[in-house]
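target protein:
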Amino acid sequence: MVCPMDTPVTEMMEQIRQVRRARRKTQAHVAKHMDVSRQQYTAIEMGRSAPSVEQLRAMCRGVGVTVTIDPTGRIEVK
């Protein structure tokens, strides 16, 4: 999945949530990888809070995907 940087955080989180569900990972599992509470993870996933770049990377590791940001600012989740 590719998300331009101007994509709202909620849209990017929706893509990550879809992958998380498809891979049968719980919010608690991913929150543990991020070192945040499940409630804080839920707020990030629902778009009520924006993750830092490090949190986004940890989230993707917990889900089992990679995230890269190319020099043009495009985010790719695969």
